[in-house]
Protein backbone atom coordinates (compact mmCIF):
# COMPACT_ATOMS: atom_id res chain seq x y z
CA UNK A 1 0.00 0.00 0.00
CA UNK A 2 1.38 3.39 -1.01
CA UNK A 3 0.79 6.30 1.35
CA UNK A 4 0.13 9.95 0.58
CA UNK A 5 3.84 10.79 0.78
CA UNK A 6 4.59 8.27 -1.95
CA UNK A 7 1.73 9.41 -4.17
CA UNK A 8 2.59 13.11 -3.84
CA UNK A 9 6.26 12.55 -4.67
CA UNK A 10 5.50 10.27 -7.59
CA UNK A 11 2.99 12.70 -9.11
CA UNK A 12 5.31 15.67 -8.65
CA UNK A 13 8.33 13.98 -10.20
CA UNK A 14 6.39 12.70 -13.20
CA UNK A 15 5.26 16.30 -13.73
CA UNK A 16 8.85 17.54 -13.39
CA UNK A 17 9.93 15.09 -16.07
CA UNK A 18 7.22 16.40 -18.40
CA UNK A 19 8.35 19.96 -17.61
CA UNK A 20 11.96 18.96 -18.45
CA UNK A 21 13.18 20.21 -15.07
CA UNK A 22 16.91 20.61 -14.52
CA UNK A 23 17.24 17.42 -12.49
CA UNK A 24 15.49 15.33 -15.14
CA UNK A 25 17.81 16.14 -18.07
CA UNK A 26 20.24 13.33 -18.93
CA UNK A 27 23.91 14.26 -19.19
CA UNK A 28 24.89 13.32 -22.71
CA UNK A 29 28.27 15.07 -23.05
CA UNK A 30 30.37 13.06 -20.61
CA UNK A 31 33.58 11.13 -20.98
CA UNK A 32 35.40 9.31 -18.18
CA UNK A 33 37.32 12.38 -17.01
CA UNK A 34 34.28 14.64 -17.07
CA UNK A 35 32.29 11.98 -15.22
CA UNK A 36 34.94 11.76 -12.49
CA UNK A 37 35.07 15.54 -12.11
CA UNK A 38 31.28 15.81 -12.06
CA UNK A 39 30.94 13.27 -9.26
CA UNK A 40 33.82 14.80 -7.29
CA UNK A 41 35.03 11.45 -5.98
CA UNK A 42 38.49 12.70 -5.01
CA UNK A 43 37.07 15.74 -3.20
CA UNK A 44 34.73 13.45 -1.26
CA UNK A 45 37.46 10.99 -0.34
CA UNK A 46 35.76 8.18 -2.25
CA UNK A 47 37.61 5.56 -4.33
CA UNK A 48 38.49 6.81 -7.80
CA UNK A 49 38.66 3.34 -9.29
CA UNK A 50 35.07 2.17 -9.59
CA UNK A 51 35.60 -0.48 -12.27
CA UNK A 52 33.36 -3.39 -11.31
CA UNK A 53 32.12 -1.60 -8.20
CA UNK A 54 28.44 -1.97 -7.36
CA UNK A 55 26.76 1.45 -7.15
CA UNK A 56 23.18 2.20 -6.13
CA UNK A 57 21.85 5.60 -7.21
CA UNK A 58 19.15 5.98 -4.55
CA UNK A 59 16.23 8.23 -5.49
CA UNK A 60 18.62 9.51 -8.13
CA UNK A 61 17.00 8.97 -11.52
CA UNK A 62 17.31 11.27 -14.51
CA UNK A 63 20.30 9.94 -16.41
CA UNK A 64 22.94 12.06 -14.69
CA UNK A 65 24.83 10.30 -11.87
CA UNK A 66 23.98 6.86 -13.23
CA UNK A 67 25.58 7.67 -16.58
CA UNK A 68 28.68 9.09 -14.90
CA UNK A 69 29.19 5.99 -12.75
CA UNK A 70 28.61 3.64 -15.67
CA UNK A 71 31.23 5.48 -17.75
CA UNK A 72 33.70 4.81 -14.93
CA UNK A 73 33.04 1.09 -15.22
CA UNK A 74 30.70 0.65 -12.27
CA UNK A 75 27.84 -1.84 -12.13
CA UNK A 76 24.99 0.67 -11.69
CA UNK A 77 21.50 0.25 -10.27
CA UNK A 78 19.08 3.19 -10.08
CA UNK A 79 16.08 3.14 -7.75
CA UNK A 80 13.62 5.98 -8.22
CA UNK A 81 9.94 6.66 -7.58
CA UNK A 82 9.41 8.11 -11.07
CA UNK A 83 9.11 5.92 -14.15
CA UNK A 84 9.83 9.01 -16.27
CA UNK A 85 13.10 9.59 -14.47
CA UNK A 86 14.10 5.96 -14.94
CA UNK A 87 13.31 6.18 -18.65
CA UNK A 88 15.88 8.98 -18.87
CA UNK A 89 18.47 6.78 -17.18
CA UNK A 90 17.86 4.13 -19.80
CA UNK A 91 18.09 6.77 -22.52
CA UNK A 92 21.47 7.91 -21.21
CA UNK A 93 22.68 4.30 -20.97
CA UNK A 94 21.70 3.67 -24.58
CA UNK A 95 23.45 6.89 -25.64
CA UNK A 96 26.74 5.75 -24.08
CA UNK A 97 26.37 2.06 -24.84
CA UNK A 98 26.52 1.03 -21.18
CA UNK A 99 24.33 -1.10 -18.98
CA UNK A 100 22.25 0.39 -16.18
CA UNK A 101 19.66 -1.48 -14.11
CA UNK A 102 16.56 0.58 -13.29
CA UNK A 103 14.14 -0.22 -10.47
CA UNK A 104 10.95 1.67 -9.65
CA UNK A 105 10.43 1.96 -5.92
CA UNK A 106 10.39 3.90 -2.66
CA UNK A 107 13.61 4.81 -0.81
CA UNK A 108 11.83 3.76 2.40
CA UNK A 109 11.57 0.14 1.21
CA UNK A 110 14.57 -1.39 -0.56
CA UNK A 111 13.34 -4.98 -0.28
CA UNK A 112 12.74 -4.87 -4.05
CA UNK A 113 16.54 -5.03 -4.43
CA UNK A 114 16.58 -8.48 -2.82
CA UNK A 115 19.93 -9.50 -1.35
CA UNK A 116 21.91 -7.00 -3.41
CA UNK A 117 24.92 -5.50 -1.66
CA UNK A 118 26.49 -2.29 -2.89
CA UNK A 119 29.94 -0.82 -2.49
CA UNK A 120 28.54 2.69 -2.77
CA UNK A 121 25.06 4.09 -2.19
CA UNK A 122 24.83 7.50 -3.84
CA UNK A 123 21.89 9.50 -2.47
CA UNK A 124 21.40 12.95 -4.02
CA UNK A 125 18.95 15.52 -2.64
CA UNK A 126 15.72 13.72 -1.75
CA UNK A 127 15.86 12.78 1.93
CA UNK A 128 13.58 15.67 2.91
CA UNK A 129 10.80 14.29 0.70
CA UNK A 130 9.96 11.74 3.42
CA UNK A 131 9.03 12.51 7.04
CA UNK A 132 11.24 10.00 8.87
CA UNK A 133 14.84 9.70 7.67
CA UNK A 134 15.48 6.84 10.12
CA UNK A 135 13.51 4.45 7.91
CA UNK A 136 15.72 5.30 4.93
CA UNK A 137 18.94 4.86 6.92
CA UNK A 138 17.80 1.43 8.12
CA UNK A 139 17.11 0.38 4.54
CA UNK A 140 20.48 1.69 3.32
CA UNK A 141 22.27 -0.25 6.06
CA UNK A 142 20.57 -3.37 4.74
CA UNK A 143 21.94 -3.06 1.20
CA UNK A 144 25.44 -1.57 1.60
CA UNK A 145 28.45 -3.85 1.94
CA UNK A 146 30.55 -3.72 5.11
CA UNK A 147 33.31 -1.22 4.35
CA UNK A 148 31.17 0.37 1.64
CA UNK A 149 30.22 4.04 1.49
CA UNK A 150 27.02 6.07 1.68
CA UNK A 151 27.08 9.50 0.06
CA UNK A 152 24.22 11.70 1.25
CA UNK A 153 23.32 15.17 0.02
CA UNK A 154 20.52 16.75 2.01
CA UNK A 155 19.05 20.04 3.11
CA UNK A 156 21.07 21.90 5.70
CA UNK A 157 18.82 21.23 8.71
CA UNK A 158 19.33 24.72 10.13
CA UNK A 159 17.99 26.42 7.00
CA UNK A 160 15.52 23.85 5.68
CA UNK A 161 12.53 25.59 4.11
CA UNK A 162 14.30 28.96 4.00
CA UNK A 163 14.90 30.65 0.63
CA UNK A 164 16.15 33.96 -0.72
CA UNK A 165 12.53 35.15 -0.71
CA UNK A 166 12.81 35.46 3.09
CA UNK A 167 15.03 38.55 2.72
CA UNK A 168 13.75 41.30 5.05
CA UNK A 169 16.12 44.09 4.07
CA UNK A 170 18.77 43.13 6.61
CA UNK A 171 18.88 39.35 6.59
CA UNK A 172 16.93 36.16 5.99
CA UNK A 173 14.21 35.56 8.57
CA UNK A 174 14.01 32.09 10.06
CA UNK A 175 10.39 31.10 10.76
CA UNK A 176 10.39 27.30 10.50
CA UNK A 177 10.62 25.51 13.86
CA UNK A 178 13.80 23.47 14.21
CA UNK A 179 12.22 20.08 14.75
CA UNK A 180 11.88 16.70 13.11
CA UNK A 181 9.16 15.97 10.55
CA UNK A 182 7.69 19.48 10.31
CA UNK A 183 6.10 19.83 6.86
CA UNK A 184 7.38 22.71 4.76
CA UNK A 185 6.56 23.93 1.27
CA UNK A 186 8.07 26.66 -0.89
CA UNK A 187 8.10 27.56 -4.60
CA UNK A 188 10.59 25.94 -6.95
CA UNK A 189 13.45 28.21 -7.94
CA UNK A 190 13.17 29.86 -11.36
CA UNK A 191 16.06 27.79 -12.69
CA UNK A 192 14.39 24.44 -11.94
CA UNK A 193 12.06 24.49 -14.95
CA UNK A 194 10.16 26.85 -17.26
CA UNK A 195 8.10 29.08 -14.99
CA UNK A 196 6.57 31.22 -17.73
CA UNK A 197 2.77 31.21 -18.16
CA UNK A 198 3.16 28.80 -21.09
CA UNK A 199 5.16 26.35 -18.98
CA UNK A 200 3.72 23.30 -17.25
CA UNK A 201 2.25 23.79 -13.77
CA UNK A 202 4.05 21.58 -11.24
CA UNK A 203 2.95 21.18 -7.63
CA UNK A 204 5.34 22.74 -5.14
CA UNK A 205 7.77 20.46 -3.31
CA UNK A 206 6.44 19.05 -0.08
CA UNK A 207 9.35 18.52 2.27
CA UNK A 208 9.91 17.55 5.88
CA UNK A 209 12.53 18.91 8.25
CA UNK A 210 15.18 16.63 9.71
CA UNK A 211 17.35 17.79 12.59
CA UNK A 212 21.09 17.30 12.36
CA UNK A 213 21.05 15.27 15.57
CA UNK A 214 18.53 12.80 14.12
CA UNK A 215 20.57 12.40 10.93
CA UNK A 216 23.94 11.93 12.63
CA UNK A 217 22.85 9.89 15.64
CA UNK A 218 20.74 7.45 13.66
CA UNK A 219 23.31 6.83 10.95
CA UNK A 220 25.81 6.17 13.73
CA UNK A 221 23.39 3.74 15.37
CA UNK A 222 23.01 1.90 12.08
CA UNK A 223 26.77 1.32 11.98
CA UNK A 224 28.00 4.19 9.81
CA UNK A 225 31.13 6.26 10.50
CA UNK A 226 31.26 9.82 9.21
CA UNK A 227 34.29 10.45 6.99
CA UNK A 228 33.38 13.81 5.43
CA UNK A 229 31.02 16.73 6.03
CA UNK A 230 30.87 19.56 3.51
CA UNK A 231 28.61 22.62 3.38
CA UNK A 232 27.48 23.56 -0.11
CA UNK A 233 27.67 27.33 -0.15
CA UNK A 234 27.90 30.29 -2.51
CA UNK A 235 31.17 32.11 -3.15
CA UNK A 236 30.08 35.35 -4.81
CA UNK A 237 31.01 38.26 -2.58
CA UNK A 238 29.30 40.67 -4.99
CA UNK A 239 25.95 38.86 -5.02
CA UNK A 240 22.88 41.06 -4.65
CA UNK A 241 21.08 40.69 -1.29
CA UNK A 242 17.70 39.05 -1.68
CA UNK A 243 18.88 36.82 -4.54
CA UNK A 244 19.69 33.12 -4.54
CA UNK A 245 23.46 33.60 -4.94
CA UNK A 246 23.62 35.94 -1.94
CA UNK A 247 21.38 33.66 0.12
CA UNK A 248 23.81 30.79 -0.49
CA UNK A 249 26.70 32.82 0.96
CA UNK A 250 24.73 33.54 4.15
CA UNK A 251 22.84 30.28 4.69
CA UNK A 252 24.43 27.26 2.97
CA UNK A 253 21.32 25.37 1.80
CA UNK A 254 22.79 21.88 1.46
CA UNK A 255 25.11 19.46 3.20
CA UNK A 256 27.19 16.67 1.68
CA UNK A 257 28.09 13.78 3.96
CA UNK A 258 30.11 10.64 3.29
CA UNK A 259 29.69 7.68 5.62
CA UNK A 260 31.45 4.31 5.70
CA UNK A 261 29.49 1.27 6.84
CA UNK A 262 31.43 -0.30 9.71
CA UNK A 263 28.89 -2.07 11.93
CA UNK A 264 30.16 -3.00 15.36
CA UNK A 265 33.14 -0.65 15.36
CA UNK A 266 31.54 1.71 17.88
CA UNK A 267 29.95 -1.07 19.89
CA UNK A 268 26.24 -1.67 20.36
Automatic annotation (TrEMBL):
GO molecular function, one term: S-adenosylmethionine-dependent methyltransferase activity
GO biological process: one example: methylation
Protein name: Class I SAM-dependent methyltransferase
Organism, scientific name: Nonomuraea diastatica
Domain of life: Bacteria
Keywords assigned: Methyltransferase, Transferase
InterPro entries hit by this protein: Methyltransf_11, SAM-dependent_MTases_sf
Domain Methyltransferase type: 56-151
Amino acid sequence: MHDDVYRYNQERWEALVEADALFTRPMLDLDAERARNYLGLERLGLPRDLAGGRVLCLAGGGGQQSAAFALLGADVTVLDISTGQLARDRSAAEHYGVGIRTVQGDMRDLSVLGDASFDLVWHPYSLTFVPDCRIVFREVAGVVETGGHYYLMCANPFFSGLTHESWNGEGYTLKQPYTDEAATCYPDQDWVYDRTPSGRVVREPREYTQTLSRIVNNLTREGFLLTLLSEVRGERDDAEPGGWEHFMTVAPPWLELVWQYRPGVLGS
